[in-house]
Fold each of these.
Amino acid sequence: MGKKVIGELKLQIPAGKANPSPPVGPALGQRGINIMEFCKAFNEKTKDMGNFNIPVLITVYQDKSFSFITKKPPVTDLIKKAINLTKGSDNPLKNKVGKLTQKQLQEIAEQKLEDLNAVDIDAAKKIVAGSARSMGVEIID
């Protein structure tokens, strides 16, 4: 029989930059996880993922061991990178802050497809387009 799971933890940590300071240290420490062991493993796995915050799902076992799964960067981060945007619009309906081409939309949708609740690439593109609109980014041809 497998190890008994006693909890799950979701964090977003900059790729290759996990360290014991908050939020990582306290979140893992209170569950008895070896913080440095996690940081080392996470940093090794994410060192080539660029300058993104990486969503990570950590499973904690009764014996204080852990496993983790990394996801792709959030859609909004991928959109910002694609069009060199520092932040979304304060009023997306009135103030447009950028334009995303169909090609960029397709690339982001393909990159995120496995993490999205989408059956195919067209559904994924709709989700990405919705995120773009909520940031004040227009989709252009």
Note: The first strand starts at residue 5 and ends at 14.
Amino acid sequence: MSNPQPRVALTTRLGTITLELNAEKAPATVANFLAYVDSGHFVGTTFHRVIPGFMAQGGGMTADMEQKKTMPPIANEADNGLKNVRGSIAMARTGDPHSATSQFFINLKDNGFLDFTAPNPQGYGYAVFGQVVDGMAVVDAMATLPTGRRNGHSDVPAEDVIITAAERVTA
């Protein structure tokens, strides 16, 4: 990649969140995320899981809680030294550590228990690949919205927080 720290702006009705991605420490994860940005995948997805004092997750579900088609899963890069601290962005995944596709989350606080912990075979962690550099107030505002259940999912904001634009920006 020509820029080891590309930036992406995610626009929602609450405001814009600007992310700085770390392609040096998480090259496959950043390439994957940028492929979703460049394809327009994130537009129309919602932050579908928001847990105050924990994280805000988005990138894969429409407002009606339908999962969008994704590219194949990527290898987990959680052992890159980046930590799940407040404002960091990490890949969401299933119990399979190498199952991340398009969904990501932004940490609302330091969540060290999500970090890679060697040599524990269960300690793959969640791969951090960047951080919020502007718009953390937008993420914090999401955590103040009432949540509930929708179509079998919990912690869904009652008022949709849809990504209306996702684009690369210059620093």
Note: The chain has one domain: 7-169.
Amino acid sequence: MEIRVLTVEDAEEYYSLRLRMLRELPGAFATSYEEAKEEGIKQMVERLKSTRENFILGAFDGDCLIGSVGFLRQQRNKLRHKGFVLGMYTHPDVRRRGVGKALLENLLARVRSLPGLEQIQLGVAADNLAAFQLYASLGFEAFGKEREALKLPDRYVDEIHMVLKLN
């Protein structure tokens, strides 16, 4: 397995994976499948113009993209001590094989060297125990629960907010 920062050349494959994740797990992501389809692949190209502080990692099995995770650092002066993990997903065929953990470990190794970054936050659906346990195993701690954070057509999804302090 290779883990690397995705580039604009990966847009089509990432777009396909993103649509799959949004369709498969609507309660895990703020963006809906329909919104992503409407935005189209051009939005993916923009998102894949990465910087040292904002990027999307991809896990590849050969040429096949099997997982991804994003990082976004706050830009305002009073918020620059925080960054966010976004869009964590692994293909169903490779779950519980360490792909998600490897993606997160790679992300953490990359961002630990960012000057002034003190904490990394994320949100996880309260009913996603496997994801919560993965984050906790890497040192993330829950600091709050947002009830009805997402509204789906048939239900609400509560979200647990987690943080990893780097200092």
Note: The chain has a mean pLDDT of 94.
Amino acid sequence: MRPSGRALDQMRDISIETDVTRHAEGSCLIRCGDTHVLCTASLEERVPPFLRGGGQGWVTAEYGMLPRATTTRMRREAAAGKQSGRTQEIQRLIGRSLRAGIDRNALGERQITVDCDVLQADGGTRCAAITGGWVALRLAVNKLMKAGDVITDPLTDHVAAVSCGVYAGQPVLDLDYPEDSQAGTDANFVMTGAGSMIEVQASAEGSTFSKGEFGELLALAEKGVAELVAAQKAATA
């Protein structure tokens, strides 16, 4: 039995509330069980220096956790004077993932920054950030298209992410923290709405996993991503 009582292939309850901030071009609050992430997309009519004059746009991301997102207070990274390696790795992952679903030529020479702030953490924060980040990005692009600044929709497909793992000897979908902290294998799958893989992060924790088990995790991830994409479509309809 899973600690939550869920079936092996059952996702946590997913909700996506859009337009939750006043100023951002796109915003949403995504809730994956007890993991809650605020995602905002901000438009700038400029690109990084290495892209200037090339006609291509850019999508980047930043990620952070509020001090009481977890059971004990964490010191703000700004107070520490630097970001942790984990934070840098996650925000690079979010940026890579979202760029995989966008035509940067169609976006034009402008940048969209997606900020993902974890309000409450219970496992899978990076996956929730990617899934919610795409919704915020979609809403920001919608405004560009409505204003006539972009003619062709630059978003080529949905992008969503989900975690899977081997817990108590069983492959399970959408790990919460009690499972994540005890899983023998932990994997994050980032995929498009069409089912293509963007990135897979998988590691064994104290024991190895087989090709067959990886195949089971992939099948679970495909099911989970399909449900997340359905939630994205409903939120942005």
Note: Residues 211-236 form the longest helix (26 residues).
